[in-house]
Amino acid sequence: MNTRARGAFLTIEGGEGAGKGTILKDLASRLTGAGYRVLETREPGGTPEGLELRQLMLGTKGKVWDSWAELLLMTAARVQHVRRVIEPAIARGEIVISDRFVGSTIAYQGAGQGIPAAEIEDLHHKAVGDLWPDLTVLLDIDPRIGIQRSLARLEQENLDEGRFEAMSLDFHNRVRESFLLQAAAKPGSHAVINAEWPLADVASAVADAAFAWLGKNGKTPTKT
Ligand SMILES: Nc1ncnc2c1ncn2[C@@H]1O[C@H](COP(=O)(O)OP(=O)(O)OP(=O)(O)O)[C@@H](O)[C@H]1O
Ligand SMILES: [Mg+2]
């Protein structure tokens, strides 16, 4: 029987090159340093099946998914991720931090590609149940700056994951607007951070928001 207190589910959202991956590592190490047990994960990915879907979805070579096909693939990866990784870790009392989650689906497949947010939320509910992030850190950035950062990183790491970077600026502005709307709709579970600041400033603002939320919600370090 599992007698541990529930952990927490944090997500980091934002457009291309906002700094999600970098900030996730920084936040995870600060939380670990403070005695929390932390699980770092990301979408699409997070499970072997999700990783295969990630390669199908993010590659640039001849991938022209219909919006609904893409939504269903993202959701399939999410179901695996939630059932196999996220829920068990939360039940073990861990702090799960995911680089992207359903907020990105609402922003990209929703605002970006035109599927109504309500349909995505409904599908999420059917596929995943009632799991929504306890706290979403939104790294907000002008897409023109973010895409520059992201393309530089993909080239440096020789990654073929640039399909969304290749979308129009208009697309990315809709994505940004959607993230901001989601945060405004649920202010108690979102922290919006200006990701154009220097990295050290972004990192400390994110840590402040996360520690404040954990403190306020009685999530004390569980390491013994
Ligand atoms: N605040 C910042 N100022 C300057 N550069 C930054 C900042 N945050 C991140 N970077 C750099 O920008 C690049 C993209 O960062 P990162 O990969 O963490 O972003 P991401 O949001 O995960 O991007 P993607 O959507 O492409 O996965 C990296 O090279 C990172 O070092
Ligand atoms: Mg990333």
Concise structural overview:
By secondary structure, the chain is an alpha/beta fold.
Task: Show the helix and strand layout.
Layout: E1 8-14, H1 20-33, E2 38-42, H2 48-58, H3 67-91, E3 95-99, H4 102-112, H5 117-128, E4 135-140, H6 143-156, H7 169-185, E5 190-194, H8 199-216
Number of strands: 5
Biggest sheet overview? 5 strands, parallel
Question: What would the principal axes of the Cα set say about the shape?
Answer: globular
| Helix-strand topology string | EHEHHEHHEHHEH
- Distance N to C terminus: 19 Å
> Beta-sheet strand percentage?
5-15%
| Main CATH class | Alpha Beta
Side by side, the strands of the main sheet go 2-3-1-4-5
CATH architectural designation: 3-Layer(aba) Sandwich
CATH superfamily: P-loop containing nucleotide triphosphate hydrolases
The unique ligands bound to this protein are: adenosine-5'-triphosphate, magnesium ion
Domain count, please report it.
1
What is the fold named in CATH at topology level? Answer: Rossmann fold
Global Rg: 17 Å
